[in-house]
Specification:
- The chain is mainly β and 758 residues long.
- The protein is 3% helix and 51% strand.
- The strands form eight sheets. The chain has a 22-stranded antiparallel beta barrel. Strands 3-9-10-7-8 form a five-stranded mixed β-sheet, with no helix packed on it.
- The longest helix is centred in the N-terminal third of the chain and has 6 residues.
- The chain is globular, with a radius of gyration of 27 Å.
- The relative contact order is 0.15.
């Protein structure tokens, strides 16, 4: 077990101004309350109203957590409009394009994975106006949390409940980078004597902040419906969300590229007719996703001391990811014969003659384009006859997922015991395929033939999950003891739809995972807590994608988490401090195959392999505080010190090296001021170095005014002005897990939102 960290002088010097906080959501808005959770024996935080006001309404719900201790949220722009460039890190664990080590749920419903290929983060299910709060468990979490990825903590995004009062809300947002957003929500109020509901719809459009003209952007339609029906002993909650989005991506860059052109991610916005250049055309780097998630929660009070909850849910996900390779390929089967389905790439060609025949570069020609990487003679027009026609592909990777699951638990209070037992079952079927389409005329644009000329692969993955858990909270007056155990039983199968490779299956069961914690109430204002948990992440079905993975040698990832902390709360102060130690074992890493290109190898399909490579040790300190200076002014601050290093050697790192993209130090200071109907806020966040990427500080500003109206068409109106990255700081936000390339942080972005209720 790793040693606990030494506490540094800097954190101690600022400890008295740092905080913990939480919120309790009403049916219509977020209201601040004390964070102190009397029986929670691990570090936990929730967002508050000021954090929502610091972000524009176009932004995703993910970005609202960024000021909480321990958490770093990075998105390609201020709107969170690109899943490809989105990452979350906490205590050395990550959600990014390569890793899913943090659990995520929406109203307790598992999100189905946070990865790019078929996963869906919370922003696909929930809009900011319909968010009540985000419950964050740093490191250790509630055993009832349903996730196969919760190695280093969990995020639960909670939707607002319908109001008992009838009301309609309309809002319009406009801002930089062609931002435009319409939102409408209707609250039914109490109907049928026992039911209340709301339905909402939003339409969002933005452009990429890099470039102009055909520089791509995001178009999103989103709808939500929720109802609650209360009967004598039974409460039924139902929720349905639909999200349809088309995103053009941001590209990661090297340190050298950023220093040379800090406002450019190397993607272009003018079609040149030269495929080697046009492979970087922004509108050809796209993410298309459609997500529908619904659940019904039955909460039955068996008696005054016991209850039964049963929640079935259904999730459907579909979409694709696009790239535009600067060539066509010839595929052959295992006998070397041409094929349109499966097989492997025999050759590539970048030009054809007028009859449509593939051409080879002239013998001895050494011409080569140098940007974005060396093209070689295969793609340079000088190596072909003057009438040669350039060709391109439009490569689609299709994602589809269907999930059905159920959550069930029984809770009973027996004397000083609060006992909860439950289960989570899910049947997950994910389909992934990749096909190549011919660009009709690469000299003109990237319009492509709808019929693919080659389908590279098509696989179906079935994952069956059963989790059982039991936990007991034992109350001894001022002392509470929490004990728990959980076990996962996970079976994963892969089926090649072309029948070219045999079906494979892997068992990813966990051991019995134990947890224990204690809370000691020293006074009404002060409590101490300590917690230990064994966390688990199942082998993901992506591992079975790679034919070279030796499944008999791969074991699930595990982590042991320890939290020690203190919470203090009174009318003026809310303070929390936590030290933690984590040991993460059996880390699963992807080893990419060799490539014959200096740029993107578009032909990589199911090559490469996953292996277990050691693990990670993390120790750190998290401090947070909120001080209510007077009835108008409040100050919030948080500090994070984290030290995450690798255990064991592997390609790309050695034992003792800093974990790629982990952040050692973060510091937040923000103030919020209200005077009558006027409100304003200023927030600054410092993020330390991440490998070769330099530290940076970003400042956000918000100003708003609300007014209730009498005898008017509207009950109330509100205007909100938000500026993210106020001083237009140029910085590298998150990396890609390689330590070599990073995404550029978004520039200064201003928005204004007009809201009316009637």
């Amino acid at each position: 077990m790793a040693c606990m960290p030494k506490i540094r002088p800097l954190p101690l010097s600022i400890a008295l101004i740092l905080s913990s906080h939480a919120v309790l959501a009403s049916s219509d808005e977020i209201e601040e309350v004390s964070v102190i959770a009397k029986k929670i024996s691990y570090a936990n935080h929730q967002i508050d109203t000021s954090m929502t006001q610091q972000q524009n309404t176009v932004s995703s719900v993910l970005g609202l957590m960024d000021n909480l201790p321990g958490i770093s949220i990075n998105e390609g722009d201020a709107f969170g409009g690109d899943d490809w460039s989105t990452s979350i890190t906490m205590r050395g664990f990550s959600i990014d394009g390569n890793q899913q080590q943090l659990g995520m749920t929406v109203d307790g419903i598992p999100n189905g994975g946070s990865n790019y290929g078929g996963g869906a983060k919370a922003n696909r299910y929930l809009e900011t106006e319909n968010l009540a709060t985000v419950e964050v468990g740093q490191g250790t979490a509630d055993l009832a949390s349903a996730s196969l990825e919760a190695l280093g903590g969990t995020f639960n995004f909670v939707s607002i409940d319908p109001s008992s009062e009838k009301q309609t809300t309309i809002a319009y947002t406009t801002g930089d980078h062609d931002a435009s957003r319409y939102f409408v929500r209707h609250q039914t109020g109490q109907v049928l004597g026992h039911t209340r509901a709301y339905i909402s719809y939003s339409q969002t459009d933005t452009s990429r902040w890099i470039g102009e003209g055909s520089n791509g952007g995001t178009t999103k339609q989103h709808a939500e419906f929720k109802f609650i029906s209360d009967f004598e002993q039974l409460s039924i909650t139902g929720r349905l969300s639909f999200d349809d989005v088309e995103e053009d991506n941001y590209n990661s860059v090297s340190i050298a590229q950023f220093k040379q052109t800090p406002d450019w991610d190397q993607l272009t916005w003018n079609w040149t007719g030269v495929p080697h250049f046009d492979q970087m055309f922004a509108e050809g780097w796209s993410t298309l996703r459609e997500n529908t998630l619904g659940y019904l929660k039955f909460d039955y009070a068996l008696s005054s001391t016991s209850s039964l909850t049963f929640t079935p849910y259904l999730h459907k996900n579909s979409g694709r990811g696009d790239w535009i390779p600067p060539y066509l390929v010839k595929a052959v089967d295992e006998n070397g014969l041409p094929t349109h389905q499966g097989g492997s790439v025999q050759s590539k060609y970048g030009f054809i003659d007028l009859a449509g025949n593939a051409l080879s570069p002239s013998q001895g020609c050494e011409s080569s384009y140098s940007w974005p990487w060396e093209s070689g003679n295969l793609l340079h027009s000088a190596c072909y006859p003057a009438d040669a026609v350039p060709v391109m592909s439009y490569r689609h990777t299709h994602y589809k997922k269907d999930r059905f699951g159920v959550l069930a638990d029984y809770q009973v209070m027996l004397q000083n015991h609060d006992i909860k037992v439950g289960l989570w079952y899910e049947d997950d079927e994910r389909t992934e395929s990749r096909d190549w389409h011919k660009v009709i005329d690469a000299r003109v644009y990237h319009h492509f033939d709808q019929t693919p000329y080659w389908t590279q692969y098509k696989n179906v993955f079935n994952t069956d999950t059963l989790k059982l858990y039991v936990q007991d909270s034992i109350n001894f007056s001022d002392f509470t003891l929490n004990l728990g155990a959980q076990k996962y039983m996970v079976d994963i199968e892969k089926h090649d739809q072309f029948g070219l490779t045999p079906s494979t299956r892997v068992n990813s069961d966990s051991d019995v995972l134990l947890s224990a914690g204690a809370v000691y109430q020293l006074s009404h204002e002060l409590e101490l807590f300590a917690g230990f948990s064994e966390n688990f992440a199942a082998i993901k079905n992506e591992v079975l994608e790679r034919d070279a993975s030796t499944l008999t040698d791969i074991v699930p990832e595990t982590a042991e988490n320890i939290d020690l902390g203190v919470r203090f709360s009174n009318l003026d102060w809310q303070v929390s401090a936590t030290v933690y130690s984590i040991e993460f074992d059996n880390r699963i890493t992807f080893i990419a195959p060799g490539s014959d290109t200096g740029g993107i190898d578009y032909t990589v399909g199911t090559n490469g392999q996953y292996i277990n490579v050691g693990g990670i040790e993390s120790q750190g300190l998290e401090l947070s505080a909120k001080y209510q200076v007077d009835q108008n002014l409040s100050v919030y601050s948080s500090y994070t010190m984290n030290d995450s290093t690798y255990i064991g050697n592997a390609p790309g790192f050695n034992a003792g090296d800093k974990v790629i993209d982990s952040v050692d130090d973060m510091f937040v200071i923000s103030t919020d001021y209200t005077q009558g109907n006027l409100r304003s806020g200023l927030s600054a966040k410092y993020t330390g170095e991440r490998g070769a990427a330099e530290s940076y500080t970003v400042v956000d500003f918000n100003l708003g005014y609300s007014q209730s109206l009498e005898d008017a068409m509207f009950e109330s109106v509100d205007i909100a002005f938000v500026v993210n990255n106020l001083f237009d700081k140029r910085y590298l936000s998150t990396g890609t897990g390689t330590g070599e390339t990073f995404f550029i942080g978004g520039p200064r972005t201003a928005t204004i939102t007009l809201t009316a209720n009637f």
